[in-house]
Write a structure and sequence with these properties.
binds adenosine-5'-diphosphate; 21 helices; 6-stranded parallel sheet; binds magnesium ion; 19 strands; alpha/beta; 536 residues
Amino acid sequence: MEGEELSGAQLIAQALRDQNIEYMFGIVGIPVTEIAIAAQAAGIKYVGMRNEQAACYAASAVGYLTGRPGVCLVVSGPGFLHALGGMANATINCWPLIVIGGSSDRNQETMGAFQEFPQVEAGRLYNKLSVRPSSLEVIPAVIEKAVRTSIYGRPGSCYIDIPGDFVNLQVNKSSVKYVECCLPPPISMAEHSAVSEAASILALSKQPLLIIGKGAAYSHAENNIRKLVDLCGLPFLPTPMAKGVVPDNHPNCVAAARSTALQHADVIILLGARLNWILHFGLPPRFRQDVKVIQIDICAEELGNNVKPAAILLGDINAVTQQGLALQKSLPMNYYTVFHHIREMIPKDCILVSEGANTMDIGRTMLPNYYPRQRLDAGTFGTMGVGLGFAIAAAMVAKDRAPGKRVICVEGDSAFGFSGMEVETICRYNLPILIIVVNNNGIYTGLDANSWKEMLKLGNPATCVPPVSLLPNSHYEEIMSAFGGKGYFVKTPEELQNALKASVTDKQTPSLINVMIDPQSERKKQEFPWLTRSNL
Ligand code: ADP
Ligand code: MG
């Protein structure tokens, strides 16, 4: 509308609204009362508090919880000073915040005006940006810049100083420089080379530890981080405010053994946490002298603080975790990847039969049971060869007493060999058992096809093939198809998911999924190796 007039207070409120600001906390008084009233009129929720410090803490927590800064509104001088604690707290926490402070009228500056104080200068130490708009016309642009600065890069607090005479001053709408809502923060990814470097460091580690910080919580990376923890079988430790990014009751959570975990880790993935006092600066005696740190942060200046990292990944945690997951997909699967997908896709109330060495051990932690008497495995005697017999029994009993209940038999390739011919029995009686063979070409560990060929060149296989090796890439699934059941040979997570989906949905036909994994894939190192001493 031509000629429409707006007050400074209305301009501020409208500009905040245009930047999708939802919440304002503060204490009114000269000269900001009109700003609070205008904010309410613009649809911003205003909460009047009793001290500016509490108001500022509240506004900063809104920023952490929603990713959009809350606003703290304060009066000049003491009101502004009371809010400094909140600004510092937000900036040190890396939380976005906007503080709007009234200040004395411009024409009384240096004269000893009411509550006169150099607020812009004082704000500089505590804020990413501390500014006063030069005129009413630029208020929307300054507010956009403050909101953008508070959420782009490492989040933090921004201060906007409003001279008292701006609040009721009128301006013609047509002369105002309107600015649209800033774009959501750009999402940056780490260099590819840094991601592969990190992956190879991780692959060689014996005692990796993932430390999850509140930066990970802020970046909403929970789904990707949960996948990464599952797929890599990573033990993890949350910092206090990162608790819940992966649930505290996840089997890989080592919070109860925090000191031990920190002390023994040879590789630490630092995901949105700083190596400050909370993490003992990453230094001995709390950490190993030779610990390799893979550091992921959105703030370049943070990388390398206190400990020289082995790999630095500059980027948004959610995006970088996604990059890590994508890389994981291109590698041969390991036990954790396979069990993750099995766990996601099998019915919770199925009867699980399991035998093998690593397959059964890792399956114990990765494949939960929810009901009693639904897990049958190598048992007290540690017997190999019980699996298919147990599965047949379970399927017979289930048929009579719990029709429709699935029997899923998770076998190591070696274990499967002990009673593989019972597949014919399964097919003869048409028992819809799903057998999953986790195939690593051997007992404990095996050889890949190339190493196998090289090995044979050395001479008589009976003198040179390692006793733990079995024939590489054996097509065990063909035993199932030989008798009329469905056989699947899978090498990738996608193929595994598809095969699982098909065999779980088909409740009539026996099936066997032969899952090839990295022959060198192993379980995580044990703290008490008395049972595995002889393992290669
Ligand atoms: P904690 O207190 O949980 O240890 P800190 O506050 O020390 O966590 O560390 C949080 C880190 O997260 C900061 O270094 C910050 O730069 C970083 N950060 C914040 N948001 C992101 C994000 N989206 N992506 C990556 N890093 C982030
Ligand atoms: Mg095996």
